[in-house]
Specification:
The complex is a heterodimer of chains A (289) and B (423). Chain A has 289 residues and is an all-alpha fold. Chain A has a single domain (54-288), classed as MetI-like fold, CATH 1.10.3720.10. In chain A, 72% of the residues lie in helices and 1% in strands. Chain A contains 13 helices and 2 strands. Chain A has helices at 6-36, 53-59, 62-93, 100-112, 115-125, 132-139, 154-179, 183-191, 196-207, 209-224, 228-234, 245-255, 259-283, and strands at residues 39-40, 48-49. Chain A has a two-stranded antiparallel sheet. In chain A, strand 1 and strand 2 (48-49) form a beta hairpin. By secondary structure, chain B is α/β, with parallel strands linked by helices. Chain B folds into 2 domains: 37-148 and 307-376, 3-Layer(aba) Sandwich (D-Maltodextrin-Binding Protein, domain 2), CATH 3.40.190; 149-306 and 379-421, D-Maltodextrin-Binding Protein, domain 2 (3-Layer(aba) Sandwich). Chain B has 19 helices and 12 strands. In chain B, a hairpin with a 2-residue loop joins strand 4 (135-136) and strand 5. In chain B, helix 10 packs across helix 18 (384-400) and helix 18 packs antiparallel against helix 19. The N and C termini of chain B lie far apart (68 Å). Classes of the chains: A mainly alpha (289), B alpha/beta (423).
């Protein structure tokens, strides 16, 4: 019998099924993966302990750095744009516009599609010789652009497709926060003669600060984990110039069977994301909670 | 009263745990019917349909053996296969790309030599190049089902318009013909992809690979421990690729795989280099007059990069030699009916099939069957997958930027040697 009053005992018992699954599928792989990063392991033969060799290798691996840089580029491009776009959409959805109800659905529907559907769709829209965008460009007499195959454009094109796909998520969170602001505040500010944008910057934004901070952290984490849409749309190309870190981790683990090395890189990424999240959390002022 | 309730609940919980193990009871019903050979195939789409048709035909014509599967979708095939082989739960027969056999020998796949001999397997009927590629440390670990090398497709209608009646047999003739078609008809000379988009620009690597072997060169040293392409052969091969785009301009810049396939399919390109698997796509195109031939010896004797689908048996089968006999029967039948598999465009590996009327009657395929003998398998080293992917990036860069060939090769050699050290 677990000591304590009946409520907490029952509470623990009801938690056990979830905890079992959580430990088995989340905690155990997390710890096991970390252990694997100290071995040379190709999954089919026994592990060979090599200490910190994987970590030493990755610190002198130029492809690791270039992949990390490509991921960082993606984070720097998509984080501000997704937050700003999400915020603008949320403002629209809470405005007096007659289209706001339709707008909410239209902005959110892309998020419902799976990564493969979105990526394949945009890959064909942006295809250089047979895609719709270049077809439209040629009808007005402009030259086709290699949206996904020109190293100048590729990362921006993928970011744009990502914007279309996931901005709706931020919109929903921010919109929910905006709706919680009491209307009296808006009423009194309009009586005082505040313009629309003054209201947005001086009232709306400060009052949804916690949600904005949450969206920022979630967005940074998600962007650091980017893989699917880049892989499908550009294959990491041209000539590996958009290969993001997760793609490199995936190739090392599943194409080259270097499981230990792959694990080491994923834990470095994990540490990086953790540090970024902690810093953003502090800046966002959430430590008061 | 409370204690009784607790006891009742406890008893119920204990009793229900039995349900967890109900599924685990091994099926001990002895099969009094035909022997079942389970298999996994990685074929999807068009390939998958043709393979399924072969299996159905086998099952229809055999009463003593039946083949059964749950097809694993291609994109997670090797992940699942690796896991199953490691856990000992793989089926009786598996399809494995020749390049990947290496990852599973010597422990996960059955060494076939004793069984082949015992069952009089018709080893001599196989074309030797693909069969030898299935040998590791002197033993056979798989039997080749097909060879799929890179070949040359040519649009005969466009060639005729430009006044060309014979196909080019070397690089100079290829460029001249491509230029002639481009000038006279405005169509693309050579639809050869050189940029990665949805698909990686592997064609460049495959052609580079082929041209190295055409000149009797090699990609890696005999012991696979160092790069062997940084020499006059490599320079000649790289320059040939770069000139197609930058000097002779018979291939546009920034052409990706989908564009190159579509250009040829729509009749907008004279020549196209691709694996034999593209035959099926082009056959279905309307108004496309084309031929498919073995890759000509562009700068040397004929030699072409090629992959091969093979049939292998997981090592767990060693426990049951009689069952291995049945599995070999299946392999024998499938490879002997290679003309059915050829519908997918691949080249059969048995001489008897290549010489059969059924195969010769198939459109296009007999035209490039000779390529099987000059197909070169990739070097047998764990590092090959990473080398292949890395070289693809570097060749793509060198062609796109028309880099100095010697500097490009120096960089490739350095990188490849560094990669080999990590294995």
């Amino acid at each position: 019998m677990i000591p304590g009053n009946k409520d907490s005992r029952d509470g623990y018992i009801f938690c056990i099924p979830f905890l079992l699954i959580y430990i088995l599928f989340m905690v155990y792989p997390l710890i096991n993966g970390f252990i694997i990063s100290f071995f040379k392991y190709n999954i089919l033969s026994t592990k060979k302990f090599i200490g910190l060799a994987n970590y030493r290798t990755l610190f002198s691996d130029s492809k690791f750095y270039s992949s990390l840089w490509h991921t960082t580029q993606f984070v720097l491009i998509t984080t501000p744009s997704l937050l700003i776009l999400g915020f603008l959409m949320a403002l629209f959805v809470n405005s007096k516009s007659p289209f706001k109800v339709a707008g909410e659905s239209i902005f959110f529907i892309p998020y419902v599609f799976s990564m493969t559907v979105v990526s394949t769709l945009w890959a064909w829209l942006m295809q250089k010789n047979y895609g719709l965008f270049n077809h439209l460009l040629s009808t007005v007499g402009l030259n086709p652009v290699g949206w996904l195959i020109d190293s100048k454009w590729a990362i921006w094109s993928v970011s744009f497709a990502t914007l279309w796909w996931t901005a709706g998520f931020n919109m929903i969170l921010m919109s929910a926060a905006i709706r919680q602001i009491p209307t009296e505040i808006y009423n009194s500010s309009s009586i005082d003669g505040a313009s629309y944008w003054q209201t947005v910057f001086k009232i709306t934004m400060p009052l949804i600060k916690k949600t904005l901070s949450l969206c920022l952290i979630l967005q940074v984490i998600a962007s650091f984990n980017v893989f699917g849409q880049v892989f499908v749309m550009t294959g990491g190309g041209p000539y590996g110039s958009t290969r993001v870190l997760i793609q490199y981790i995936y190739e090392n683990g599943f194409s080259y069977f270097k499981m230990g090395y792959s694990a080491a890189m994923s834990y470095i990424l994990f540490a990086l994301i953790m540090i970024c999240s902690l810093i953003l959390n502090k800046i966002g002022g959430n430590e008061d909670d | 009263m409370k204690l009784k309730k607790m006891l009742a609940l406890l008893l119920l919980l204990i009793a229900s745990t039995g349900l967890i193990f109900a599924q685990g009871a091994a099926e001990t019903t002895t099969q009094k019917g035909p022997t079942v050979v389970t298999f996994w195939s990685l074929f999807t789409g068009g390939d998958g349909e043709f393979f399924d048709a072969m299996i159905d035909e086998f099952n229809a014509t055999h009463t003593d053996i039946q083949m059964k599967t749950d097809t694993v979708k291609f994109d997670s095939y090797y992940t699942k296969l690796t896991a199953a082989l490691a856990a000992g739960t793989a089926p009786d027969l598996v399809v494995v790309h020749e390049a990947n056999i290496r990852n599973y020998v010597p422990d996960q796949l059955l060494a076939l030599d004793p069984y082949l001999e015992e069952n009089n397997f018709p080893v001599d009927d196989f074309v030797s190049a693909p069969l030898e590629a299935c040998k590791f440390d002197g033993q056979y670990y798989a039997i080749p089902l097909d060879v799929h090398p890179i070949i040359m497709y040519a649009n005969t209608a466009l060639l005729k318009q430009a006044g060309i009646n014979d196909l080019p047999t070397n690089y100079e003739e290829l460029i001249a013909d491509a230029k002639a078609v481009q000038d006279k008809t405005g169509a693309m000379g050579i639809a050869c992809d050189n940029t990665t988009a949805v698909y990686k620009a592997y064609t460049l690597t495959r052609l580079f690979f082929s041209m190295m072997y055409e000149q009797d060169g090699q990609m890696l040293s005999d012991d696979n421990m160092s790069a062997a392409f940084n020499n006059e052969y490599g320079v000649k091969a790289l320059v040939a690729l770069q000139d197609m785009v930058n000097k002779y301009e018979v291939t546009p810049q920034g052409l990706d795989y989908d564009s190159s396939v579509n250009a040829f399919k729509l009749g907008q390109a004279a020549f196209h280099f691709n694996g034999v698997w593209a035959t099926g796509t082009f056959e279905k195109a309307d108004n496309l007059d084309f031929v498919a031939v073995a890759l000509p010896g562009l700068i040397g004797k004929p030699a072409a990069w090629g992959g091969s689908h093979t049939l292998a048996i997981p090592a767990t089968e060693a426990k049951d030699p009689d069952h291995v006999k049945d599995i070999l029967t299946c392999i024998d039948w499938i490879t002997a009916h290679g003309e059915m598999w050829s519908l997918a465009g691949h080249i059969p590996t048995r001489t008897s099939v290549q010489e059969s009327d059924a195969f010769k009657a198939l459109p296009y395929r007999a035209g490039y069957a000779s390529a099987a003998a000059s197909t070169v398998a990739p070097p047998a080293t764990d590092a090959w997958s990473e080398i292949y992917t890395t070289l693809s990036d570097k060749l793509e860069y060198a062609v796109a930027h028309n880099s100095n060939p010697q500097m490009a090769l120096d960089d490739m050699e350095k990188t490849v040697n560094k990669i080999i050290m990590t294995y």
